Each structure stands twice: as structure tokens, then as C-alpha cells.
Structures
1.
Amino acid sequence: MSDTIKLADLKKGEARCPGAPSTQDIIAADKVAAPGWVRSESYQFLGDEDISKDRYIDPAYAKKEITSLWAKTWQFACREEHIPSVGDYHVYDLGPYSFIITRVAENDIRAYYNACLHRGTKLRASGTEGNAEEFKCSFHGWTWNIDGTHKETLCPWDFPHVEFKKLTLPEAKVERLGGFVFINMDKDAPTLAEYLGPAAKSHIDAWKLENRYIYLHVSKRLPCNWKLAIDAFLEAYHVIETHPQVAPSNGDANTQYDVYGEHVNRFISPLGVVSPHLYGKISEQDVLNQFTLGDSSAMGDTKLSVKDGGTARAVMAEMFRGMFEKATNTDLSKVSDSELLDCFSYTVFPNIFLFPGISLPMIYRFRPDPRDHRKCIYEVLFMRPLPLDGNRPMPAEPIHLEDHQSFCEAEGMDPGFGAILDQDTDNLILQQEGLEASAKPGLTLGNYQEIRVRHFERAVDKYVKPNS
Amino acid sequence: MSTETSAASAQFERVLKLADLPAGSKKAVEINGKCVLVCNVNSKLFAISNICSHNEKPLERGRLGNGWIACPTHGARFDLATGAALNLPAKLPVATFEVRTTDEWIEVLV
Ligand code: FES
Ligand code: FES
Ligand SMILES: [Fe+2]
């Protein structure tokens, strides 16, 4: 059927991988049906002009982003589990900015600008956590209560010109969603719900990510601009060339792409099905054998086989449910095949990815390196459902890899997944250098498979306003 | 070397009943004139000097994390196993002590 479709008859953005079932077709054939947030589509054609490359290579552009983009957007600062008790704090840094995210009361979390109001010393060192009964500066000892009000100053007789009552620590806005603490430096920012929009918010609400905990947290500096790193994870178009080992069990060319409002987009990349690029070349049993998992440590050494007429995807779903239930001590009986198998990748602008699936339960966060626009800080946090006994384990400490290290060297990282991240990183250094060397002023994007890149860069444009 | 095991006179001293130090808790004790903080984190026992190397404030009201304690005064963190300072404003390590359990007692080598 699709062979006879003339591409010229389609409007821009309407073409899909010829001869392959859609992601929705694949999911509709599953045994345990998927919820509404999975079974919907929200693609939009957003133009086909090139994306300017200065955003990736111009240090002045990166400087502009600090005040126009980072100071105006909602950002994931930490998880609530990082600050479980009153007085607990977590220092969140973004470029030159730093905040002390503090639980002031059981249901009151604040984000203080991390600087003493005397002569500016950071009240807490970057990248740290702890518990405070007060925030005392290590320079001259000026002290604030954990609710941000001024507590004491050495030799107050010398500061008759300071109104200590008004000397409250300045705050950024804070909102909580799904166990995440978000902050926004812009006093006029929309609420987080408005920022996400009703559709995306309803998806995030449905995942109940507050019931997960961080069991592995790995951080590494990547050799490229932060936006190039994000772009590289926004499409499955690169899978066959960059990660050929994955293609036998990943519906890459028939992955589904959706956009929601200005700040959220997603793909659903079906796993346990063969890539359309490999149709006729491999069997269902091959698909099963080559399935690469983010969390295969939970699976043990079980060997699976596809019975005559069956599909790899059906076998995977059945086995996964049992194995993940056992390994993580959770009840997954109502969880759909799709949620167990598929890769759901959501972006919340500007810098996080949420992967609410069970087989790839992750968060990515990307932050610019304030000293070098050609570098960024990447973190991957693996989430697991809380154990049935209800006890919340402490969140894993971040493992900081050196620039030269492989992701596989992080203890607890699945080697298959670590190898994928290494492949992505190697492309990125070549892309950063190539863009700087290129005679072409822009980047060209596919209308469907690269819609998330266009959507994301449009939001960048909106905040940074290239011609202002 | 931050672990004080060299003194010839060093010996294990009973400090606490194991049952009196549930998971996630800590207790300051004085052993032979030394202020020691005994901690139970993720079912592992640690003994560390109770005195912060930055400004000599007690660590005992600090937060226990995965393998560290944070000084409540200015937030320096120390590795519970090695005593190494993990962040400013501390740079110097604090002493750590060997711990063992015998007959339901926690014993510290001082
Ligand atoms: S700079 Fe903080 S007290 Fe002086
Ligand atoms: S006294 Fe401990 S950090 Fe200053
Ligand atoms: Fe990739």
C-alpha cells in the first residue's frame, strides 16, 4: 500500500516510513493495553528552513543564554528525596548561578540564591548536600534562619545603615511535581502547569514518578555545546548508523514523534521489534537475542525463545513483567506491554529528559559549562519503583566520570547502555568541530524524525531572540 | 593517613550496644578523652572524629548521607570511611577509627 503513495501528494510533514507499521499499530497489537497518554499522537509541522549554527559555536550566544534563557525557564533542581527532612538542603548550580534548595517545613521547599548578603561568599559549597539549623557564612559568620530571615551579624554596632529585618535571603520560585523540585529565577514566570501545558502535565501526572527512587546517578562532561548534546538524544534517526548493535530490536525509522505546546516534546521508540532498515534480514529470534536493555541488571541471565508464529515483542513483554517484578519487588500486573518495553523519551525545556518506561527508567539533565560554550555537563539518573515494603532507599551519590572515561566505567552502569552513550559522545565532538569548520551556515532537519530538534531549537529562539 | 591505629596502646573499647544505634542514626561518645561519632549508615558502622577540621565545631548534628557526613555549621562534608574532606570550607581530613561488633557490642579502636 505505502509503496504506491506518491510523496508529492502529501503535505509537508505527513510522510512516514514506507512499508512499516506505525508505533501506534505496534502498540495496538499488544496483550496488556497501553494507557491514553501512550495511545495518542500530537505531531505538528513546524517549518523546514535550516537551523542557524551560531547557537552552538558562538561564545556570545552562550553568554546571552544565561540571562535570557536560563534565568527565565523552569529547571529541575533536585528530587524531593535529596532533601527528605526539615533543614535538609541540596545545592543546585546552573552556569554562574547557584541555589540552596532547602526544606523549610514538611511541605515548604525554598530556593535561596547561594550567596551571603554581606560580601557575597557562597553560603554552601557547590555540589553539596547537608542539613542546617541555620545558614552561617564561613567568612564573617553572618547567619540566616532556614526560612531565610536574618538571624545574626557579628558586631551589629558597625552596621547602623543595614536594616537586618529586611535582610532576607532572596529566593527563586519553587514548584514540585512528580517528586521533582523545579525552580525558576523569573518572578513573572508562568506557573509550572502553564509552562508544561495541560496535555504534557497530564502525562507526567500519570507516571507517578514520585514513587521512584534514584538507584544510579552518573555525571560526565561532554565535549560539545549543551544544545548539541540534547539534540543528539531527540531522535532515533541516528540509531542505524551510530548504534547498529541496537537496530535489530528497535523500531527506529517508525518511531513516533510528538510536540506539546512550547516546552515539551516526546518520542515513543518501540523496542522488541526489528528496525525497518533490516526488514527481511533478521528473524524474530534475532530480535529477542539482541535486545539491549538499560536496566538488564534487573533481569539476571534468563534465556528466551520465540515460539512458532509468535513475536519477540510478546515474549519480551511477558518475561519482563515477571522478571522486573521479582528483581525490584514491585507489582507490575497492570502495567502495559508498551510501558514495560518501549523507550518513551520526553523533554521538558530547557534541559531535562524524562523516560517514564520500565525498561529504561531514566532522567537526563544537561547543563552548560559556564567557562566553555563547547562543553556541557551531562547527568543520567536511573530510577526504580519504590520497593513494596515502602522503605525509600537513599538516593545514589553521583559518580563523576573524568572526560576520558567510558560510561561503562561507572559502577552499576549496564555495559550495553554505557557503550551506547560512548557512541553518542564520540559523534558529538566531531559535530562540534565540524560545525565550526563548515562552509554551511545552518543545519538541515527531517520534517518528521527531527521534529523534536526543530521544536526544541524554536523554544531556544523564543528565549534568546536571535535578532535582538 | 587519617586512621589512628598506629599507637602501640591502641585497643578496641566497647562504646555502645548495637541495638542502641539503629540504621541511619549516630551517637557521639567520649573514649579515652577522644570525641568520637559512631554512625550506622545503610547497615554499615563508621567511627569518625566528632570535631570538624574546618572550625572545630561538632559534627554530631550533621546529616548522614551515602557514605558522608555534612558539618551543620558551614557544610563541609567528610568521607565516613577515610575521613577525607569532600568540599570547602574544609580541606583537612578528620580522624577515623576502626569499628567492629562483638557480642552485640560496638567496639572502636582508639
Ligand atoms: S561574606 Fe558572609 S559574613 Fe562576610
Ligand atoms: S566548622 Fe564544620 S564546616 Fe565549618
Ligand atoms: Fe544515541
2.
Amino acid sequence: MTLDPKIPAGPIEQKWDNHRFAMKLVNPANKRKYHIIVVGTGLAGASAAASLAELGYRVTALSYHESPRRAHSISAQGGINAPKNYPNDGDSVYRLFYDTVKGGDYRAREANVYRLSQVSNAIIDQCVAQGVPFAREYGGLLDNRSFGGAQVSRTFYARGQTGQQLLLGAYSAMMRQVGLGTVKFYERREMLDLVVADGKARGVIARNMVDGRLESYEGDAVILATGGYGNVFFLSTNAKMCNATATWRAHKRGAFFGNPCFTQIHPTCIPVASEHQSKLTLMSESLRNDGRIWVPKAKADKRAPNQIPEEERDYYLERLYPSFGNLVPRDVASRRAKEMCDKGHGVGTTGLAVYLDFSETIKRNGQAWVAEKYGNLFDMYKQITGEDGYESPMRIYPAVHYTMGGLWVDYNLMGTIPGLFVLGEANFSDHGANRLGASALMQGLADGYFIIPYTIGDYLASNKFQKIDAAGPAFKEAEASVADLTKKLIAVRGKTPVDVFHKELGRIMWEYCGMGRNAAGLKKALELIPALRERFWEDVLITGSPDSFNQELEKAHRLADFLELAELMVRDALLRDESCGGHFREEHQTEEGEAKRNDAKFSFVAAWEFAGTNRTPKLHKEPLKFDYVKPSQRSYK
Amino acid sequence: MSGTMTITLNVWRQSDRNSKGRFARYTLPNVSPDMSFLEMLDLLNLDLVRKGEEAIAFDHDCREGICGTCSLYINGRAHGPLRGVTACQLHMRTFHDGDSITIEPWRAKPFPVIKDLVVDRSAFDRIMAAGGFVSVRTGGVPDANTIPIPKPVAEEAMDAAACIGCGACVAACKNGSAMLFVAAKVSQLALLPQGHAERQQRVEAMVARMDAEGFGACSNTYACEAECPKKISVTHIARLNSEYLRAKLI
Ligand SMILES: Cc1cc2nc3c(=O)[nH]c(=O)nc-3n(C[C@H](O)[C@H](O)[C@H](O)COP(=O)(O)OP(=O)(O)OC[C@H]3O[C@@H](n4cnc5c(N)ncnc54)[C@H](O)[C@@H]3O)c2cc1C
Ligand code: SF4
Ligand code: FES
């Protein structure tokens, strides 16, 4: 199998237009003959379901949530990018394209990124027309703010709830179609397998989470918009239910997995407080604009922060990066915090935190000034920690936040199984080795509103589809394999609940495949993970019946997949013997400790093919070419 | 960090929609004040599973107060004792060693119990499908800045749009009314020019669906506003009423 990204010919500005013209169309009367299954109704899935139904396709949408409005997209805070250039500060489609390729440390496909940038302006128009209440200026026009990795203000926002408002917009568009009967929505359904017949993706098997029954859904194409896999680390800023099951099971049916080791770690999160911690909370990185980050110079210094005199503090980012100071990019800030804690300078009861100190800004501008700008973040901090960030410095620590890797897709967003399309965070496509802030919401909606409606039509019009029956052999086989897996999980009847294994997996991943990675550690993880997986299959204890609402069983299915995906992430990290973006191989750093790419050897997408459980997966490479944005080394000194 | 606490819990257990439920009593030692309320339930569930018992089912996801999934009725109050705080943001430091806490699901006819503390709130989705949208299709919309909206109007629309659809307003209301939830959406779209073309059909369709789902009437007790974790104001109910009246008059 050769990997063909199907990048259209022509200059980058014209690729998408040319391609749209070249693609086949399904005539309006025929659209209703096609049935499309959409798994996942976050930003990417809800926008796709709505747009496809508006065109006339029959759509069935599934989600493990009770409503599309609950998807993880709802919790995005900061904003969404678009190069409208409303502020007249020099933005353009080309600049957003350039920033994204560079921000991704030259590991993304130029043609996809350019298209993303091209369609992003229309997203803002669409959302406003739906009634999304973006922030406005006094003149009534839309307001913009700046965000990491860009020198222009191109981020649209709705208070600290941008993801919520965008999702409610896409959800309302989708619910309109549900009301019209063109989208059938099935809630509390978890896809547990992909059905491939005649070499094409033709349906899914889902578990009805209320009564435990397995259900078959057949169609002419399947869209996965099932989000990212950050929860492989157990602790992350992702919602608790986020998981990789849909993508992983599709992977096991033949879909290649792209760049699994590319994960993003966000520097400003509220640190772990206790061993019972169930998830981590992100605080906007805008805090780094006015807060100073430091640790005590002495190791294991247990004094209260206010009792540590100025000369005994190490403002390490300002020391290491005199010109960027506290505003270095996400990956650099995260890595340095870990390094300080590893050396014993960490603060708080766990020693895994650094101070983010506003005292100087408060002294200079007053508490009211700080409260106006960041009040909601200080409130949130207090809510969670019970401490007042105005009185003594806040404690922060990096946390897993986003996964750039995902199922490999070509320019049409189709995976290596014909008829399987992958949208949003679930695919690997646009962010390379590091995603810029406010670009995930943009990508999810670009995929759903403006790309898939075109590319899926071309696929449907260019292929013949045999009639498929949910009672046929392909569905029976898939259903039996899911039923079998459930039976095996329940039958273990060991002594240890699912979460205990998940936490252990998280610890391994964080230690060996987190912010800093090296060959020795990765090799160790390659021993630890299969051993843990074995213990899981010998000792997991799931109570309750499989034929009823059973959250322990749900978690067990998801963890079974994380335990396999984790190993692939580690393999990928080991293979990528260079540092780039969020992937920091300690062996490859500059003298100053910065990430050192190796373009000669690693300018490719690693796409992994499943070869069977407990067998080494097969690597395929998609070479990356940079015709427009020439790779260079980042420096923040 | 102070020492740990021992908490007694009275938790509603119900196997499925059609079974009869009952309260079960659990004593949980080693509760740390730093734990969130849901982490306390996680801890209890670990114990229960280790003992071979079924875990307590409860809905949750973001654990940050934004997804609207958590839905616990704690000591007789939707989302527990703190104003403007969802159950998932509540921390155990709000309670004391030796406290006894009663946890129930949302109780309202249109929200049948699925299991234990999990209820079915799909009635809210059906109300949304009836009219909670602006009928625009993807593509072909005007440039975003061709519709100027005065900042105060945009802000007020955003206040309404902040609703997380949790259903606490319904659970808190003695009539089981969904007026605050419906009003928040009607009000958001009535305030914005984009929503004007359909304001008449929207309010009628949403109210009709709300009634058909079996939600009760509003008798202005304002329990909804008091328990709403997003502090959605009852002034939106006033706007809904005037929208409704206006629709009926036209
Ligand atoms: C705290 C936080 C803040 C963020 N802030 C920003 C920001 O400011 N700007 C920005 O651009 N990005 C931000 N991001 C990233 C962004 O929110 C996500 O990448 C994006 O929303 C993902 O959207 P999605 O549609 O791909 O997936 P999701 O929203 O995760 O939706 C996944 C959907 O798939 C369904 N699903 C999954 N698996 C299955 C299955 N097996 N069966 C059935 N259904 C399934 C789920 O039910 C859900 O409906 C943030 C992320 C976090 C964690
Ligand atoms: S109005 Fe408030 S209580 Fe009611 S659903 Fe919305 S957020 Fe929840
Ligand atoms: S779990 Fe999301 S609001 Fe409580």
C-alpha cells in the first residue's frame, strides 16, 4: 500500500479552487439516496452532520454523550483564529498559513494548512449568522485579540467560552436538521467497531450505553469526528470521557495512524493536588503576559513564597531567555518547568509546581487592574485550590492538552480505508508537531462546514456501492468481535478496578513519553506498557452487568485501547530520533537546550499500519515538501 | 493541607428507569478537603468495585463547570450548597468531618432516571430541535461585520447564551418548569438581529414543545435563578413572556 496524500496540482493559492472544480458532484436528486454515518458530534461532527443534511444527504449521527452540546469542544476557552484582518494589522491568509506551518515546526502538509487558512474566514461569517455572540467593540463590530505564536490580532472570542458558543452554534444547526428529519441522532451510543465490506467503510457497531445492546448502523460512508486521545495520560485537560476507541478500532481495521507521538503540553494548568486527582484544569496562557514565573533557588525549600527573599528566587525563564522571558512558546515553558521540578526546586506539597507571581504587577498597577483582566482565572484558581492568587503566588504546572497525531488522512480527509473520513482533532492533518492556540476550533469547523461537504460528494459520485445489510456477514463478524471483547473483559474478574490501571498507564506515559523523551526511557516504556496490559487482562475487575448502563465497562473498553495506543505512541517517539515542536528528544537539543530538528532524516509523516495485537506495526512514510515556508531553527533568546 | 474527613453518604440507587429506587448509606473515611465532590464519588466507587459491588452511576465529563453534564441534587439543592457553582466544581472543603450528605438525581417527570443519579435530559434537545436556532445553511452568509451589534446587546445575548443546559432550573422548581432554560435561548436569539426573522415561530415552537414534554408552568418562585450555576437571570423569562405575547398578537 502506498500513501498518496492526493495533493492537487498547481500553485498553493489555487489548489483548493482547482480541486473543487475537478471533483465530481452528486446531483441534488441523488443525494438523498446516500446515507452517511457521522460518529462524534463535537465541533467537527456537528458541523459536518448539519452541512451534509442541508445538502440533501441522509445522515445518522452517533455520540456517547447524551447530547451533542456536551462534547469536549464545549470547554475551549481562548478563541478561534481567522485572518480577517479587521484590526488592519497586516494579517492575511498567507500569514496565517505561514504561522501555522512554522508553529507546527515544519511537520505539517503545506497544502492542507493553506486550505485551512483559506476557509477560516468563512467560519466566522457562518457562526455570526447562526447567532454566536462573539465579543464586540463599542462600534458594534467584532473584536479581536492576540494569541500565542502570532504577531497579529486574529483571534475571535466569546468571553472565556468560545468553544461553548461555537459548539452551541453547530449544535443548533444540527438540531434544526434533526427537527426536519434529515439527521437522525442517537445519543449515548459508543462506537466499538468499524465495519469494512468490499474494502470500503460501510458502517459501525455501537453499544447502546443505556441497555447495553449492540446496534449496527450501515451507510455509504463513515465519518469519524471523535476527538483526541490526550487521556491516554489519565491526567489531562481533556474531559473525562475523551478516548481513542473509535479511531483505534478503525486503526485495527486498517486505517493508518499518523504521528501518534505528537502531543501538546500546556504550561499553565493548575497542578495536581492529591493522588485522587481525576483531571487537570487549564488556565489561559494569557496569564504569562503579566505574571512572573519563579522557583526557590534552594532545593526543597519549604518556606511560604512570601518568606523567600527576592535574591533567593530564580526567575528561570527570564534568566534563560532574556528577550522572550515568560513569553516563550508553550513547549519551551512547559519543559523548563519540568526541569526545575526534576532538579528539586518544585514547590507545593507535591514539589511538582512552579510559582506564577502577580505581586509586582499588583504593586505597579493595583489589584483592580489585574482583576479586570484576569479576574475569572483568579476565581477559578480559588475555586479549585481554595487559595487566593492575589495574596500569594499561584502554583502552576504543565499538563497534557491536545494531540496533534491522529488517523492519517489525505487532502480529502479520507483515511487509508476508502469511505472512512476523519475530521477534527481525530485526524493528524494540520498542526504538525505543535498546534498554535485558537487553531483547533478553526480546524474542526473548517473540516465540518467547508471541506467534507465537497470531498465526500466526490467519493460518493466516483464509487459504486453494493447494497449492504446490517444483518449481513460483515456486520455479524464485527458485532461478534465486540461482543467477544466485552465478554472477555467481564470474564477476567480480577481484583483491580479500571482506573487503577489507567493511572498507572498515565504515570508511565508522563514519565517516559511526556515533555522530555529519550531512547532509554522510551525503551523502558516499551517493556512497561505490554506488562501493564498483561496485568490489566489478568486482574481487571468490572462489576455490574454488560446488559445495562455500566460506566466501569465503558471505561474498560476505552482503557483496553489506550493500552495499545500508548505503545504505538512510544514506538513513534522512539523512531523519531529528532526533536520537533512538542516532541522533545533529550538527545537532540541545541547547546541552549532547545529542540533540534533533523530535516534531512525526519521531514515525513509517520503513518503506522496495524499488524496484529502484540505484533510490531508497519511504518509508512509520507514525505513532506516545503515549497513555500522554508524550514528554519526557532530561537527565543 | 488539613487532615482527612469521614463522610456519611445517602445515595439514591436505582437499577433502571422502571425499577423502584432507594437510598443506600455509605461511610467514607479518608476524604481529603482538596478533593472535588466528584473525586469523592470516584473514591467511593473504587471501594465499591473492590468489594464486588456496582459503582454508583453519575453523569459528568468536563469537571470544569462548562459541559452541563453533572447533575447532582446535593442535600436538597441542585448542584449543592454554593451559588453559581456546578456539582463538579464543588470541593470537599465546603463540608466538615462527620457530615452526612444526601445525593439524589434531578427529580422531574420529563427527566426520567436512567440509573442511580443519571437522568435522561433529551427533552431539552427536542425543545432545541423545535426552534432553538437561526435557519441559515452552511455557506452563502454575509460577511460577519455587515451586522453591527451594539456591545451592550451582544453582552446581554452572551449572558443568556452562557446557559449550559444542565437542567438544574427544572430540578430546583417545584413545578418542574423549564422556563429558564427555554427563556435563555429565546432571549439570546431575540436580542440579536440574526434571530429576528424567526422570532415569532421560534418562541411558539419552543414553548409548545416544552409543554408537550410535560414541563410544568412557571409560577415565579425564582428557585431556578437561585440554583442556576450560570446565574441566568429571570429577566430572560420576562423577555420570553413578552416574545410569546407578541407572537400571539401578530
Ligand atoms: C481545556 C481546553 C481548552 C481549549 N481551548 C481551545 C481554544 O481556545 N481554541 C482552540 O482552537 N482549541 C482549544 N482547545 C482544543 C479544542 O477544544 C479541541 O481540539 C476541539 O474542540 C476538538 O473538537 P472535535 O470536534 O474534534 O472533538 P470533540 O469536541 O472532542 O468531540 C468528539 C465527539 O465524538 C464523540 N465520540 C468520541 N468517541 C466516540 C465513540 N467511540 N462513539 C461515539 N461517539 C464518540 C463524542 O461523544 C463527541 O461528540 C482546547 C482544548 C482543551 C482541552
Ligand atoms: S438556565 Fe441555568 S440551571 Fe437552567 S439549564 Fe441553563 S444553566 Fe442550567
Ligand atoms: S461535569 Fe461538566 S459541568 Fe459539571
